[in-house]
Amino acid sequence: MAHVVLYQLNEEPRNWLFEPLVESSMAFSFEKPLEGRWIRYWPWPYANHRKGVFLDQAVQNTPEYAAALRRAENEEIRLLYVGMTRARDYLVFAARKGYHKWLDQLTDKNNVKTLKLPQDKASTDQGFQVLTLQETEPLPSSSQMVTWFAGVDSRTERPPKAVYCSSLIVAEDAANLVSASAEKIMERVAIVGNPEMNDLGNAVHAFMCCDCDGISANDKEAIAHDLLVAHGVSASLRAPDLVSIHDKFMTYIRNRWLGAKIRREWPLSFKIGSLELHGAADLVIETSTGYVIIDHKTFPGGESALLEKAKSFAAQLTAYRTALEKATRIPVLSTWIHFPISGYLVDVRIKAMAETFLQQCISPTQ
Q: What CATH class has 162-361?
């Protein structure tokens, strides 16, 4: 017998506009199937942050959202049709009483529901039989369970293939190979209260990686304010202070490396042994003689603490250096950690071959 079980029937249509979507400005034509078709992409600027942003709520009032919702509903109905028509003998609707929003999408032109599931055993609906979970057959005991595949006596542990550069930690026996020197490039900015430093770091990092060229001062401050609010740290750092950090930093960069091209959030990856290292450099400066890599870290310590903190990121910076040199065959002149809150730029160097140093810093579990 052919049985089909439909479950998770309380799921609602997924309508997320912040991804590439195919749009059409005219009716489909078999003669010219691609005519009038184009790709719309609204990037989501807040990474994994979803709560308290309000951007997705504002989008719900747009005609694009309404059209996308209709497409999502039509796709859900299509999936329902496929599932329901595959049953030959029995079609099972596994749902809690009153919780089946997916089925509620089946309506006629007057928006009247065309399929109503009976909700209890007293129902006399033709063709339906309501069963409660208590009446289902219990699972067989472990002695009756069927083993499809025999187990193995031992298990071979294999490291994951992908390793993120930000997870690399300088090994204890490699710490003496790292040196750092600090430059104070601006005054320290005050932090109010005791914010969650991870949230503060994400907000500062997001703004530091913005391409603010050509944006008015008011618009920059508005972007900074929205980012701080979205990450819940607007009471700890003022938007004008964040804009000031960004502008002073960019002025310093442009004056120090005259005429250089500035690339933000440059994705990098390379293979080392059986592993693949992945990451994204916050700032890559392309000069006439080579590259400079800068990574932002929101650590509020003083100069002596900053030096030790910067050295702890030597493996991450070395991974970026190696990936960039392998990909472009152009040398990386220096690698830096920028501490926006403290106002320091720290030059981090290693006294070893890059790949040898990285091999020391990759733990066996990686």
A: alpha beta
